Backbone:
């Protein structure tokens, strides 16, 4: 038995040591797979969720590839427009040192849209001056401030007219100084 133990220890010494696995395999796998996984998650998870959220909140953005025209949306396009030009107001809380100059066009699809706006022009100008003059510099510096002002003007115009006459409002000039 002594010889067998001696022979087995000699065999162990003669056998080459086992190689440790190379660390490059996992590193290469990570470098190749992470961009692919990131692309897949962005394309198939994040973008569809963001698009759905924007559409749910009433955004005008269409999903990628949806470039065809809907006959239903084309049928609802406003027929008439009216332009409000060069409305200048002092901003709230600025002590008369800051002002806003805005021009915009309103649109609607009622048959008597032009007559309704023309008949109420002075009232609508007063509403526009009140809404624009109530904004402070902080209100106008934030992200989405023009959309906030647009929505406030639309709601105030329709409230003043006592019916939803104005459907769209587009700024043609918006200067804060």
Residues:
């Amino acid at each position: 038995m002594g010889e067998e133990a001696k022979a087995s220890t000699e065999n162990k010494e003669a056998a080459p040591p086992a190689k440790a696995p190379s660390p490059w395999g996992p590193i290469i796998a990570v470098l190749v797979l992470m961009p692919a996984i990131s692309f897949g998650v962005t394309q198939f998870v994040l973008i569809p969720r963001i698009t759905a959220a924007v559409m749910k909140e009433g955004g005008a953005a269409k999903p990628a590839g949806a470039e065809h025209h809907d006959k239903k949306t084309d049928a609802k396009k406003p027929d008439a427009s009216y332009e409000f030009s060069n409305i200048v107001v002092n901003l709230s809380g600025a002590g008369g040192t800051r002002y806003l100059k805005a021009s915009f066009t309103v649109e609607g699809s009622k048959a008597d849209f032009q007559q309704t706006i023309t008949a109420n022009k002075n009232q609508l100008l007063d509403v526009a001056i009140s809404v624009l003059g109530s904004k402070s510099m902080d209100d106008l510096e934030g992200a989405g401030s023009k959309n906030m002002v647009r929505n406030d003007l639309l709601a105030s115009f329709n409230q003043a007219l006592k019916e939803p006459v104005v459907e769209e409002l587009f700024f043609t000039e918006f200067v804060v100084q």
